[in-house]
Amino acid sequence: MSGINAGSIQVEIAKGNFHPNVVLTNMAMAYFQSQDAYVAKQLFPILPVRLSTASYYIFDKADLARDNVRRKPALGRVQPTVISNHQDTYSVFVDQIIMGIDQMAQTNIQRLPVPGASDPRKAKTRTIAEQMNIHQDIVFADGFFKPGVWKDEWQGGAAYAKDSNGFIKFNDANCDPIKLFDDFRTRMKKKGRRAPNKLGLGEDAFNALKENPIILDHVKYGGSTANPAIVNENVLAEMFGLKKVVVFGSTYNKAGFGQEEDMNFICSPDSALLVYATDSPAIDEPSAGYTFTWDMLGDGNYMPVLQYPGENGSHAEFIEGLMGVSTKKTADDLGIFLKGCV
Fold first, then answer.
1. C-beta contacts of 125-132 below 8 A and 24+ residues apart
2. How many CB atoms lie within 10 A of CB 110?
3. Residue 185: in which H helix or E strand, if any?
4. Residues 6+ apart with CB under 8 A from 12
């Protein structure tokens, strides 16, 4: 443009009318994870609770499933039937993260005409939300998705051995996943009185099922050149007779601060978890597990983000994230864990 040169720019800078755009406003490199990649809320229902620790009732399955009806004697009556119950407890603890803002250090940025990059509160609030989502997924994996949690645990190998809880790995050409999950469905219905309705898959387990020859053989005639048949979560759910199949692809950095990054999947990539779980809390049907959530501040939010000033003279403010979440296995006979799927 005419009239603009190095000299005129220097004059405008001296007058305070020219602000060099030192930060781009329409692009930033922020490795925030997609919200649909988080896994903690995808398998088990969220159960808000009023107290951080309390009890819940468990009605005895053996008594409920027994035939307690007897022949009535002449001029008499049968003995009353007893359906026993007992209680179990849950406990929710509060986790916390705090990030600080140096008000002086932010002054130069805030004075530049770059609103997209100059709002540290918005950026750090988003970062805290990301951190709490990662932590909630780690809590989920530790409570549900690892060896030793579920009594009915199976190990992938080269042969299907029911007596030793062994199954053929998904990436083995001899593996028939459809028959395998049919057997698991029958097994769970017999033991837990519910057929499984949800399956969580580690990333590698999911990829192996997509390439399994028997799975591919079932879908290859369902496509065309324009719309080729593909194996996705919905296809697997239909094949296995399930309501929902989810892939646990959430990732995190396992290394400590200042160490070389060590990116990993939060949930074991070669594992799978087959469960019966309600979509919402229920009093008249069981669920393999629950995620208990407590609103520690009494405002109905179990993951609140708050802002507060620092000490006088510090010219600092802080953004805090709180989380009250606890996972609990509530019905061991409604879960089957598979490790070493590939």
1. 125/305, 125/319, 126/32, 127/99, 128/97, 128/99, 128/305, 128/319, 128/320, 128/321, 129/303, 129/305, 129/321, 130/32, 130/33, 131/97, 131/321, 132/97, 132/303, 132/321, 132/323
2. 13
3. helix 177-192
4. 18
Q: Which candidate, 134, 99, 131, places its Cα nearest to that of 266? A: 134
Q: H-helix or E-strand containing 47?
A: strand 46-49
Q: Which residue shows structure tokens 């530790």? A: 142
DSSP string, 81-109: P---EEEEEEE--EEEEEEEEEHHHHHHH
Identity (one letter) of the amino acid at 81? Answer: T
* CA–CA separation, 312 and 73 (whole Å): 85
pTM: 0.84
Q: How far apart are CA 310 and CA 137, in angstroms?
A: 31
- Nearest 5°: phi and psi at 67? -80, 100
Residue 213 main-chain phi, psi, to 5 deg? -60, -35
Q: Which pLDDT belongs to residue 225?
A: 46
Half-sphere exposure of 192 (CA within 13 A, CB side): 26
Distance from C-alpha of 66 to C-alpha of 125, rounded to nearest angstrom: 54
Q: What are the tokens at 314?
A: 């510090």
- Provide block-wise average pLDDT over 10 residues at a time, the chain (342 residues): 60 60 52 76 93 92 89 93 90 94 71 58 85 94 96 96 94 96 96 96 97 90 59 94 96 92 95 97 93 93 90 88 95 97 97
Report which DSSP code applies to 32: P
CA 163 to chain centre: 32
Structure tokens that stand for 210 in this block: 């997509």
